[in-house]
Prior knowledge:
Helix content is 36%, strand content 20%. By secondary structure, it is an alpha+beta fold.
Amino acid sequence: MPGLVGVIGEMSPGIRDKLLKDMIRAIRHEDWYQVHHYTDGGIGLGRVSLGILNPEPQPIWNEDRSLCIFMEGEVYDYEGERRHLIERGHRFHVNNDPEYVLHLYEEYGEDFVLKLNGAFVAAIWDVRQRKLLVINDRLGLRPFYYTQHNGRLLFGAGARAVVVDPSFDRRVNPVALVEFLSFQHLLGDNTLFQGVSLLPPASVMVYQEGQLSLHPYWELRFPETYEYHDEEYYIERWITLVQQAVARQMRGPEPLAVLLSGGVDSRNVLALMDRERFPVLTFTFGQPDSDDVRLAREVAATLGVKNRFFRLQPNYLLHLAEEGVRLTDGMKSCVHMHVLGPLREMADQARVFYLGYLGGTIHGDSVSPDLLAPFEESVMIRLLFRKRNTLFQEKEHEQLFTDSFYQRVRGQAFDSFQAALRRSHSTWAADKNNYLEAQEVDRRFTT
Length: 447
């Protein structure tokens, strides 16, 4: 995925420039991607972009050029706060999301992040204090990997950008490997590289004078009790909130498209779109005789939008597995790479795609009735572990690994899972399961 890259620390300009160039190359998968970069002493920052959202060159500076920002992603609903900043004396020249975020930081300091709603990652460089500040959104939807070694901090939108540093010792993270083979994804801030971490959701990272600090500014919490309302209230409230969410994100240039499956999530997105943005293209892929495809066609016909179907060939992974591993740093199971099949053909017809991703988590689709009862904590952990240990079981690990490696990682899958559950403050199994989806699974599948 395109995004930010950077290196900061004591090094010669030649080493800095080469590192930054190699890091950019690692995530620039297409020649037409936009690239902007900046160097100053021991720091090099860059952005690789599709050129759709906030296409203006970066970095963007404040009025006295004491602060600059690189940002990937977008921020929603800030026109009122922007007017307030203007009243406070801030001047806008570019009028885009990064410039707003930069002035917001000037006005409120690190608390500015509490006022942001969106899907983003941003890096702000303070020239005078030689301080780097990085923030991401509350769900961590823009991947950001980092490592601190050899007196420098390196970061990028892909772990592959971080490990291009020839002084970095590339070693497999054994715990992450066991997690991947147990759950089809990693947990916490693990990556497959020892010493490379994924920035947690809702984080503020500061790097200054060789010291790295990291703290959360928000936590996902589920209420322990819920107010009683009748069914009609919940239906109306749900429609209002989803319609608001769809409207917030309808900023992209035309033509627009919806990845329309038979699932309720993408159907809702299409149904709640502002009709003034129609006509909208819809794309569906899969097998022609499946219920998923049939339902998608019926929805498209009902709403009067054009639907194009792409048949997913049975052998698509033979041609796309290598690209899928590269794009995801090897951290996404091939089961979830099917979207790569028709992706290039779809991209030829539309620039912005809307889909129902995260809808399942929001609606609690992963919650089965047996999770709604109260449990003792130890029983609940075992129950959830069995449900989510979908690939290789502990007894099979001994057959997968050498004896010496197995002894190092024996029982680690359960230990990691238990630690992940304890990061949730809820006492209910259903809420803990939803927490895992939002904080441990979904953000790793946004590459």
